[in-house]
Write a structure and sequence with these properties.
Length: 110
């Protein structure tokens, strides 16, 4: 039993430390209009983000900036990008868009 607990702890620790360091960075998966998407968020300086929204045959760039408990930014190419505001609730990144239902992305544990 002790070995199982130690093994689980060792497997979950890296993801927990990453989330504690910056809750917005990492890989998240979700569904939009019946298609599976992956949101990858990176940060090379505190509070500034870049990344991409991926689906089969699609790749949209993402940029964002942290404001308190939220990240504000845009996804897409300049001519058709959409603005968003995101917050993290546990393992869920909730991405809110104007005049559209929020999108839920779940943290991918590696």
């Amino acid at each position: 039993m002790k070995a199982v607990v130690v093994t689980v702890f060792c497997l979950l620790l890296p993801a927990a430390l990453q989330a504690a360091a910056d809750p917005f960075t990492g890989r998240f998966s979700g569904e939009i209009d019946g298609k599976n998407y992956e949101l990858r968020v990176y940060s090379d300086s505190p509070g500034n983000y870049d990344g991409e929204l991926l689906a089969p045959g699609e790749r949209l760039p993402m940029i964002g900036r942290r404001f308190g408990e939220h990240m504000v930014g845009q996804i897409g190419f300049p001519e058709d990008a959409f603005a968003f505001r995101a917050r993290v609730l546990g393992a869920i990144l909730l991405l809110e868009r104007q005049q559209a239902p929020p999108l839920k992305f779940f943290r991918v544990v590696e």
